[in-house]
Amino acid sequence: MPSERVLVTGASGFLGEHLVRLLRESGQAVRAFGRHPSEALRALGVDWWPGDLMAAGQAAEAALHEALSGCTKVYHLAGLVSRDESKAQQMMRLHVDGTRRLLHAAARCGVRRVLLLSSSGTTAVSRTPTPIADESFPYAVDLCAGWPYYLSKIYQEKLALTLGPQLGLEVVAVLPSLLLGPGDRRGSSTGDVRRFLCHELPFIPPGGLSFVDVRDVALACISAMEKAPAGRRYLLGGPNWTFAEFFGRLGRIAKVEGPMLRLPARWSEAAGRLAAALEVAFRHRGHDPPLERISVEMARHFWYCDASRARAELGFAPRDPAETLDDTVRDLRPGLRRL
């Protein structure tokens, strides 16, 4: 009996390639929908269907319809991760309008289930380290109001979980924390680790983070697609560490000296204002700033999350974080030597 055909958006991304590899190893027939074909995906035997979720018009709708035809499940991973405020409209168009377009087309094509890749930052972010957020916590709209990426992901998640059932689709959402591990070709997730290895971090911020291995999230995506009740949300995170502990452990694994300066919380607001001024000045001259306002603001917060639901219902079992950090460093280092 032939396996079901699935469509993956964002298949050429960091998580997408790991997910597609697992699906193909299990014998699944996979289609990838996106703008840029990937040689890595073609080597895995994936059918590439060109298209753009942000495009409107009959031709764009026809391309999406053709890609979805015959598919029973969709892994919706397509997204744009950026701290650049100038890309706010683009992120909203892709994450919200693109998701709406995809769900309507999926319903017309007879798709049964859709898995949405969201972010733990839609819920699990706070000014204090406790309490640690689980799925019962509200969306962090007020905190994320000045952070376009997370705000667009909140709107995307709320749209998908509301519109999906109205269209007859079973929608589930996974909300991973910071993705680390090997294979981040674009550097969208492992950028701060690269900056640390290149001695580009000026100080240790006062907040904290959660991170998770991309390979463990790929497994959890498949488990959620197969097991999760419709409408369910799953936080996926590993350890919850302060930035001081994270960069301390990373430095020991990488044998790299980290920043000596630890920024006290009382100074972080002033640092944010300085970063905002620098960002305006650098972008006005057409250069990327050494520090971004959003990065400094985010680093004052705690991005801790509780993945108990995923452990209990999906069998989510994140690996030793030291393995994740070591594999991330090993994967990044060859590229750093070429710089």
Labels describing this entry:
339 residues, three-stranded mixed beta sheet, 12 helices, alpha/beta, seven-stranded parallel beta sheet, globular, Rossmann fold
Task: Describe the 3D structure.
There is one protein chain. The protein is of the alpha/beta class and 339 residues long. The chain has a domain of 223 residues: Rossmann fold. 45% of the residues lie in helices and 14% in strands. It has twelve helices and ten strands. Helix 1 crosses helix 7 and helix 3 packs across helix 4.
Helix and strand arrangement:
Layout: E1 5-9, H1 14-25, E2 29-34, H2 39-43, E3 47-50, H3 58-68, E4 71-76, H4 88-108, E5 113-117, H5 148-166, E6 170-176, E7 178-180, H6 191-197, E8 208-213, H7 214-227, E9 233-236, E10 240-242, H8 243-254, H9 265-284, H10 293-298, H11 308-314, H12 321-337
Helix pairs in contact: 1-7, 3-4, 4-5, 8-12
